[in-house]
Specification:
alpha/beta, Lambda Exonuclease, Chain A, six-stranded mixed sheet, about 45% helix, globular
């Protein structure tokens, strides 16, 4: 098994509560809901952490899918050889930066498996080669109701007709009902951003999971447009985020997720105060 790459030199770049309360994103909101002490370590203290093999793979996959979408948006021809070259270059560049310590032959195996995973997506994707996206990796912002911060985010892809797509990699086949619930806040954020930017409702949302099995596969989970109930749930969650920041409510939420948390050691050292020894 590969070892986590060493983090960059420690630099504590604290963020003020005012700065964090001025805007909110799906990723910050998700971290806040999972564990507020983890949020404190990641976003307030900005304690750097090394790159894991899983994160490395996820970033490479995301980069290549972004390039694939941009090629279609520009109306350029799709070449498997070109994308494979981009894949190899991105893998090597990220490895040089992160310096993950792979076990013998593991890097080449994972690299080969990841390219096979991408090839599987290109073959099984419901998106036609000639379908021109409405938008690719677009940064958006939207005002929320009075008293709430400004919502910011980046949508992976918007297909023809206003179909929002989010790409994910997974080590197991996702359950449609569970993943829709787990990612509800993230998808609601995207809906709010899309509606604010376009003045119209999204036609649908799709989760595209690239599943890293012995035989890779692609699982598409369709999700209906955001309802008023989901919108209100999102606004209530953001309200809780703002109130918690104001109280500096940075407390841990122990659970099964702790076993893979990068801040496990810092959490164990927590004394009930904000600073870690």
């Amino acid at each position: 098994m590969s070892a986590v790459a060493e983090p960059p030199p420690f630099r504590r770049r604290s963020r003020s509560i005012e700065e964090l309360a001025a805007t909110v994103s799906a990723s910050r909101l998700g971290c806040w809901q999972q564990c507020r002490l983890k949020f404190y370590f990641r976003y307030v203290l900005s304690i750097p952490k090394g790159t894991t093999a899983s994160l490395h793979i996820g970033k490479v996959v995301h980069t290549i899918l972004q390039s694939w979408n941009m090629v279609r948006w520009r109306g350029q021809p799709i070449s498997t050889e070109v994308f494979q070259g981009m894949f190899e270059q991105d893998w090597e560049g990220r490895q040089a930066q992160s310096a993950i310590q792979w076990d013998a032959d593991e890097e080449q195996e994972q690299r080969s498996n990841t390219w096979t995973l991408l090839q599987t997506y290109f073959t099984q994707t419901p998106i036609g080669a000639n379908e021109r996206p409405e938008a690719v990796e677009v940064p958006l912002e939207a005002d929320l109701p009075e008293g709430l911060p400004r919502l910011v985010g980046i949508i992976d892809l918007v297909r023809v007709g206003g179909r929002i797509v989010d790409f994910k990699t997974s080590g197991q086949t996702p359950d449609a009902e569970k993943v829709e619930h787990i990612h509800e806040m993230q998808l609601s954020c995207y809906s709010v951003l899309y509606r604010d930017a376009t003045g119209k409702e999204e036609s649908a949302i799709e989760l595209h999971h690239l599943v890293k099995l012995k035989t890779p596969k692609v699982v598409i989970t369709p999700v209906a447009p955001m309802t008023e109930v989901k919108r209100d749930r999102l606004f209530r969650a953001v309200e809780s985020y703002v109130d918690g920041l104001a109280r500096r409510d940075f407390v841990p939420s122990p659970g099964l997720h702790c076993s893979c948390c990068e801040y496990f050691n810092e959490c164990r050292q927590w004394t009930g105060k904000e600073e870690v020894t």
